[in-house]
């Protein structure tokens, strides 16, 4: 809804809050699924749910919203890859240091660990 109203994710003010909300949403979805998964299908389902509650958006707004969510998803995937490298380089670092120094959330750390476990399981 915020994206449809023109608020964009950014590093300042309300845009920063929106970015944090979007990333937390993506982390939660990915954690519940056990891996990063493209979010486009879920966006389509949510847009239908909003329409049924009288919050319909036009095609151009939907496309803009989907594009912005995809951009944040891509940025978060890049952070996830960086987090995997950092955790590999510093396997004994405490979660607090990883968060304070690199901004890696506890949920993202859990997702990295799940991915590493899945990769090891696939190699056996």
Automatic annotation (TrEMBL):
Organism: candidate division CPR3 bacterium
Name of the protein: Alanyl-tRNA synthetase class IIc N-terminal domain-containing protein
Span of domain Alanyl-tRNA synthetase class IIc N-terminal: 2-105
MF terms (GO), sorted A to Z: alanine-tRNA ligase activity; ATP binding
Pfam family, one: tRNA-synt_2c
Domain of life: Bacteria
Any single biological process term in GO: alanyl-tRNA aminoacylation
Gene Ontology CC: cytoplasm
